[in-house]
Sequence to fold (236 residues):
Amino acid sequence: MNPALEVTGLSAGYDVVQVIDNLSVTIPVGARVGLLGRNGMGKTTFLATLMGLTKLMGGTIKMAGSDISKKSITERAGLGLGYVSQTRDIFASLTVEENLLTGLKGRPLSALEEAYQMFPRLAERKKNLGTQLSGGEQQMLTMARTLLGQPSVLLLDEPLEGLAPVICDELMDSLQSLKSRSVITIILVEQQIDRTFDFADHIIVIEHGRMVWSGETGALRENPAIIERYLGVGVC
Fold:
C-alpha cells in the first residue's frame, strides 16, 4: 500500500521568502501525526504547502502514490485532502446547517447527521448564524464541514487555539473517535504539547523549516533533552 503522504525534498514559502527547507517525510495510511516546534518554525507553512497555499520552491508531494505537487487547491481537496486552518473559515452570514451543506460535495442531505452526531452542539445551533457562535463552536463547524467531504488525509492547524479547556476536550474526543469509525490520516499542529502527545502515535519536530526529529510519541516523551531544546519546555 502506498503511504498516505510522501514528501521529498520539499522547499516552500511566500514570494521570495523560503520557510520550508528540503524537508522529507513519509506518513503511512491511518497515522496520527503531531507536528511540533516553536512558533515561527514552519509548521503552519508546511500544512499550507501540502494544501497548495504557498509557493513551491522544490521537491515533490505525493498523496497515495500520486504526485499532487502541481495540482490546484480544489484538485487536492477532490483527491481527499482536508484542511482546517487557524482562521476558522466559516461563512458568517450563513446558518450552521447552511455552512455544513457547503461541505457535502455531492453527498446526500442525510449525511449531515454525521456532523451532528460528532458535534451535538452544532445540532442544537443548526439555525444559528455563524456570527452567533462562540470560537469553539466555529471551530467545531469548520472541522465538521471538512469531515463531511470524507477526506482521507486531514490537516489540522492549531484547532485548540484560544479555546476553553472543556471545548478542547470535546474537540479532541471527537478526533480520537475518528480512528474507530474510518481510516483517516491526521496531521495535527498544536501548541498544547500534552494533548498532542495523548493524540498522536508519531511526532515530527520542525526547526527553521527542517525536520530535526521524528519518531514514536513514546520515544519523545522519554527524551526531555529534545523536548527542551526544540520545544522550549520542560519535561511533559
User: Anything to note?
Assistant: The CA atoms of residues 60 and 111 lie 34 Å apart. The radius of gyration is 17 Å.
